[in-house]
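RETRY 2/3 - previous attempt timed out on the joint model. Re-submitting the same 999-residue input unchanged.
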Amino acid sequence: MTRQATTEVLGVHDLTVSFPDERGRVTAVRGVSWSLRAGEVLGVVGESGCGKSATALAVMGLLPHGARVGGSVRFRDRELLGLRDDELAAVRGRSVAMVFQDPLSALNPVYSVGFQVAEAVRAHHPGLGREEAVERAIALLELVGIPNARDRVADYPHEFSGGMRQRVVIAIAMADDPDVIIADEPTTALDVTIQAQVLDALRTAREQTGAATVLITHDLGVVAGQADRVVVMYAGKVVESGTVEEVFYTPRMPYTLGLLGSLPRLDGARDARLTPVAGTPPALDRPITGCAFAPRCPLATDLCRTEEPPLAPVDGEHLAACHFSADLVDRRPEDVFPPRPAPLPPDTPVAEQATPIVTAAGLVKHYRVRGAGLFRRDRGELHAVCDVSFDLSTGETLGLVGESGSGKSTIARLLMSLEDPTGGRVLLDGEPLARRGHARDLQIVFQDPMNSLDPRMTAADLVAEPLRVNGTGRREARVRALELLRSVGLSGAGSERYPHEFSGGQRQRIGIARALALRPRVLVLDEPVSALDVSVQADVINLLEDLRDALGLAYLFIAHDLSVVRHIADRVAVLYLGRVVETGDRDAVFDHPRHPYTRALVSAVPLPDPRKERARERIVLTGDVPSPVDPPSGCRFRTRCPEYLGGLTDAQRARCAGEVPALLDGVACHWARP
Amino acid sequence: MLAYVLRRLLHAVPIVLVGSFITFVMVSASGDPLGDLKAKQPPVPRAVLDAEAHRMRLDQPVLERYWHWLTGIPRGDWGPSVKKIDIGAEIWPRLWVSARLVTLAVLLALALALVVGVVSAVKRYSAVDYAFTAIGFLLLSMPAFWLAILLKQQAIDLNQATGSTLVYTVGEASIPPPTGFWPTVADVLGHLVLPTIVLAMTAFPPWSRFVRSSMIEVQESDYVRLARAKGIKRRKVLVRHALRTALVPLTTVVALDLAVLFSGAVVTETVFQWRGMGSFLLSAVRDKDIYAVMAWLLLVSVIVVVFNLVADLLYAVLDRRVRLG
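RETRY 2/3 succeeded.
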């Protein structure tokens, strides 16, 4: 660390933030302190609702109407809390700039991108002419990697992809050469290969402006790769802080340990059962006595429940808020968080059978795209799924991975007969799928349990509904529903509550219980855990594994999160623009990817292990996924393929452009490595 | 864009045709245009009744009558009238009279809606906000004719108290009209004051509520937050980012309310004894003057369809995400 590293640029001291709520006030931030030093990257991690974003907004003075702030926020020697809005306006953008989470909503849809960047330039240089500001905007857009920036300044945000929009937001943050950049979940909404590009753009912004950065994220992998120091937040407080290595390798607070243990790992470092943290974070609408984590902590004693542990040094600058941090030296997650086996439904397992239950044979799905002319003739077809085949046997999990637009969810809908394929067919036990007849055998669990459960039905009714629809008597259906709810870990009084009264993880359990009601043999799981926080996600993954093993279910597990797929799947199929580019045993695919796309995808997933993550060679793909309306000829990946753009000869390239590579031996690439 | 306009106009033609046919059948069935004539004492001779029925095309089946009426319009023949007026010659000047009332009322209501909506959104849950809400609901629940009579009586009292005509309370212009261009304009505007206020007062409350809620929504949006994070002053962000975006959906609301405003104009014009579309419709209905009623309905429906198209086009200009197609 250099001399610079000790000077504080931004300091938050004993910050509190509370919001009005229908039941009173919610204290989202309960006395947070951290210090950002010149030139460093400070990672702030924690699950949703822990107060990460509220802290950032409090620093910027951008909290919504009705929020109350206490404590202190100092930029260099100046107190920012209590400043008038116009005084703060002079600080925002120039001293402290911000990058927001959702690039799709962060830009105003009615102004051009150039205007919005130039606006940021002119905010602190009122003398600058419009043209000069636009010139500067173009320069900024080029810096963050917008191709043909000059031609694109007049375009509107909706004409840019999500990753490109996030670069624009980063360009805006750079515009006034700030001293601090606060990035609030800057890559959460993006696909992994795009995330890698955006993290590069953020690094460029840091290097260009020399700004110190606060990187707020729930993704421990991103922090491991980017941050110098880490602050872990829980229930509106800092529970641990230190260098990345200290926090990742020698955590001294059970919560941090639990978070690390609940993460599925892409590098296969933890193939054992995940160690979820039981329960959910506390509600913050009433005061908390003692340690906020105590109700979920296996080590908690009466002392923890009555007296709040201070954030105290455990080793130099490594701080932890735990009465028993000394006991955590050299403890592994599974030592502290014993995995709980789930009670399982008393159903008999599906009989093992030699032939696959489900076979997808050459599935094709095209959607018509209508033109804008006088007669709206078809402008073309959107090629969502192209010649996808796979099969699925009892007790097996096939992971379907791919980025947005790869056709994952369309395949799920085709399998469920929610849509008719343009070509190919789905076979169940070798027979073509009949719409109603096989509904019992195939069930689906959706990504967002809030949107897939009727808000006006109780948990018991939701689970009983498929049974009632299929002719089971009211009383019998209810008994079975309660039994199913119990088997997914929701027992007793919970059955009469409504979806909004449950946490996200519990809602997903209801979704699973509902899918199991008809004793299906195959479950299609469409991003079942991607809306959940890691500690909760681990619990649901464990449940799914237990159910599969006990009932002999076959899973089609669709996810964009490669680590989760690596953990749960037996076999994997990697999709790109509607085609399977690589398929095979999960260890083979993840440890020795052969298709250039799989290689890039695997290398782009951040590992929650600072040393490994920093030592890894990363393949950052250029550009965005092409439009499925007009996919590239031949190999669809070639427009982004590092081999095609780099290593291949002209003759080899001609083959990529002219001939669709067949899926041979699990890889669809003309030049696949053995 | 042009293709879109053409396609929308092509879509509009069958809508107007089907609509006009349905209303034609309904209006034709609503009473006997010769009822007054037949009830006369002493009775009108049979031959006269037959001749009148023939002139009113009552001896033709409905379908034929409709076809006759429809094909006459392009030639400027709006059909026979019970009162033997020339419907075409009568309706155009009246449309102009009503159109200037509705246009001015829309502009005034828009201005009021913006001011009230923005202020209530910015000062949400303050005394001002609650006061605006109360006034809005008061105006919403007040029948237009009652507000009109109230204002008219106040104006008459005021005129009597001062002994001169400060505010015109009768007619759309003085009779005889003043000579010269500017005196005419001043005279017309003077007569517009009260009816415009009445119409605008009944139209603006829902619009201001709409502006308020969309301003509140936009103010909480990420892009308004980003604009402020750039270091732009609050007031500037409010106008440039919040209001500009909040305005977009208002165009549709206003266009849809246009039909309501035309019916509101009927009531208002009647109270102020204007010779506009309102009294035209009322006397046509009273006289069971089928073709006059149809002329009114056709014009208003065409206006509504056209302004909906205009609103959609405006929407696409204001928000580039909207692709017409």
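The radius of gyration of chain A is 26 Å. Closing ticket.
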